[in-house]
User: Fold these one by one.
Assistant:
Number 1:
Amino acid sequence: MKMSTLFPMFMKLEGKRCLVVGAGNVGEPKIGGLIDTGARIQVIALQASATVRGWAQAGKIALELRAFAAEDLDGTFLAVVATASPALNGSIYREAQRRGVLCNVVDVPEYCDFYYAAVVRRGDLQIAISTNGQSPSLSQKLRQQLERQFGPGYAQWVAELGETRKLVLASDLDPERKRELLHSLASREALKAALAEASAKNELMENERRVTT
């Protein structure tokens, strides 16, 4: 049976309740990936890693060390399941389906409404890679290649593009001229100049650091 084509999108989770069941080696990175989204993160687990406990102590997540109950899905927008029990994982997924809650059971594609993509992050620039659950290893290899291609300098460049875009859109230029200008700012030539400038600044800062130390 051919799998359906996934719909790629970036989702806003700020203020939404996200439930994670399981807080060990598998659940920890899933929880960590949610923290910067601004979501309200509820974690239910019998045991939790030291890192997850630290996040709870810092107020970044709400952690309860107990068994999962179906009521934990009440008011939940999205659920991630990462326990060591296949039977429990399946029952949570079915309960989430019954309640209309988006659910991902880690490493069990047939129990996933969505997949975690391999992501390259450079500030506001995010490049997500998916193989429709067929080969997470390939996704990771492609991510590593893209990380080398899109270096750290892209973060500053994208931020500067955002500020410049606001100025251009607020100007009195006609719409066609605005489009031309925005396209030229995002050109390869503009990129090379911006990255070269960022590299020079970083080198200068590094030299100054060496002098002071």
Number 2:
Amino acid sequence: MALLSRPWLIGVTVAAALSASGCSGDNDGVTRVAAIGARPGLVETVGAPLTTGEALVRANMAQGLVRFDERGQVVPGLAERWNVSDDGLSYIFRLQTGEWPDERKIRADDVARILSRQLRASSTNPLKDTLGAVKEIVAMTDRVIEIRLNAPRPNLLQLLAQPEFGLVRASVGTGPFKPPTDEQLAAAKGEIDEGALFITHRIRIPDAEDPVERVQIEGGQAKTLVAAFAKGDLDLVLGGTVGDLPYAMRAKVPRGALRFDPVAGLFGLVPTKRSEILQDKQVRQLLSRAIDRTAMVAGLNVEGLAPRATLLQAGLEGMGQPVQPEWMGQPIDQRRASLIAEAGRVFGKMERPTLRLAMPEGPGGDFLFARLRYDWSPLGVDIERAPSPASADLVWLDEVAPSSSPAWFLRRFRCGTSAICVEEAEPLLAGARSAPIAAQRSALLLEAARLMDEAQLFFPVAAPVRWSLVSGRAPGFAENPFARHTLVGLADTRISGDTP
């Protein structure tokens, strides 16, 4: 990943940022935002999963053709409008009139070249596979670009709005936020903390003075950032996951400050090739059935989080409500005797295994690990923490789906990508990718999901957990299904998410 270095990265330490005084509640003040993790910067070339801070900066400084508003709805980005052909095979975007920060005119051929580069065979963009139906991207005029597909993709706009497909050229992005001018930087002197990234956004509001949104973004460890928020030194903390959730749960923050995004995705254990015993489908099925998902989810104490034992979850495009296995409805105490008996048959006289698990860091990961040890110990299966995924028998997967498509869930476990796969599912996935009719595509994906669930390629537990801490000084914040948060209108509710 190439990180861009700019003089508007003021100072070098996050620690100094956290010692700053409290925040101003005025709309013309600086909104203080923190993303859990390393100090964020603008990533030019996406070659690995983005950190929370990198995704936040890229989404707000390098928007794509479209972007997400505060509620996760697709709104105009660099494209001011678009049309979709009746057959769903062509998306035509008309670009806004504008210039790159170096005053070069933004042209459709530049945009087509940047996007095409993300999809070429040599690209390591982690979302490249999600746009596998794209046939070509062409510039039709200086301001019109067309994306041609091999098969319809109703979720294409959701994917294009992801920060992985933001537009960066020659180390600069397309906005909506930009580096401050010298005048803005001088005016903010004394308000900006060392180690923070300072960005601005001027917006036009009819019959009102044009406000300039001023935001500083910093990184840091979850425990430190939660404490800073509780003191009033931060307006918004983003990027919380299950590992660091207990820090937020225990903090003395205002009622309603802790917010959860209603995301879809993968949250559970995936076997690796390291353990021979996990190559046995019966062992995988036994271990999955022995997980007390109800107790695990209840222990996380996240409102609305529901246990599941299927790869797919409710609400995905064309899927309806996945049918959970019958044993999910039986309390663990009532099925434990049969699980112990089955363990005797499966393992026989062999020594019971000790499995190495790569789990999330932090107290939340400790809780998940303890629950798994409690659930599997009656089977004679012990577990220990692995220092890295490379040395683990099972790896905890915690990924948010980038769109409402069920294909993303299933293609994560295709042969060539997953350590254990189902060869019979491969032609189904390939057929779904090229299917011209939505009902046909859904049927193929459902059958692939059934095969993968039956083979227990993944031990699902629930949807991922993504949390934020939100103060009253960030009234424009809203939870959304992709956990991608725009900074537009964050501190000024007069500014809507779709303002050009």
